[in-house]
Amino acid sequence: MRLCKAEITLTQPDDDLGTGIDDQYLTVKIEDAGAGPYLVLETARWAVDFDDIAAFVEQLKRIQNTYTTL
Questions:
Q1: pLDDT for 9-33, tens place per residue?
Q2: Which H/E stretch holds residue 61?
Q3: Starting at the edge strand that comes first in sequence, how are the strands of the sheet with 5-11 ordered?
Q4: Is 14 within 8 Å of 4 (Cβ atoms)?
Q5: Where are the domains of the chain?
Q6: Is the pTM value of this prediction over 0.90?
Q7: pLDDT tens digits, 31-59
Q8: What distance in Å separates the CA atoms of residue 39 and residue 32, rounded to the nearest whole number?
Q9: How far apart are CA 3 and CA 28, in angstroms?
Q10: In angstroms, how far is the first alpha carbon of the chain from the final one?
Q11: What is the DSSP annotation of 1-37?
């Protein structure tokens, strides 16, 4: 048995250019159609400050690690 799909939704405070209508949600899906898992990112708007790029990547790695331990 193997896990073939996982999904998590992240949220953050609105930024100044957002519409304020469901635009600060990021859905991260991990899918595996048989050739190995990959990330799918879905969002209407998700902004990352330059100073926060490393923290964002670390969050994606935590999601990956959670998936691989299931």
A1: 999 888 777 776 667 899 999 988 8
A2: helix 53-69
A3: 5-11, 25-31, 38-43
A4: no
A5: 5-69
A6: no
A7: 888 888 899 999 988 989 999 999 999 99
A8: 9
A9: 15
A10: 11
A11: ----EEEEEEE-PPPTTS-SSS-SEEEEEEE-SSS--
Distance from chain centroid for Cα 70: 17
The token duo for 31 is: 């899918």
**Residue holding tokens 């193997």?**
2
DSSP label at 44?
Answer: S
Token pair in block for residue 27: 């859905």
Please give the structure tokens belonging to residue 58: 């670390």
In degrees, to the nearest 5, what angle opens at C-alpha 10 toward C-alphas 9 and 11?
Answer: 125
In this structure, are strands 25-31 and 38-43 parallel, antiparallel, or unpaired?
A: antiparallel
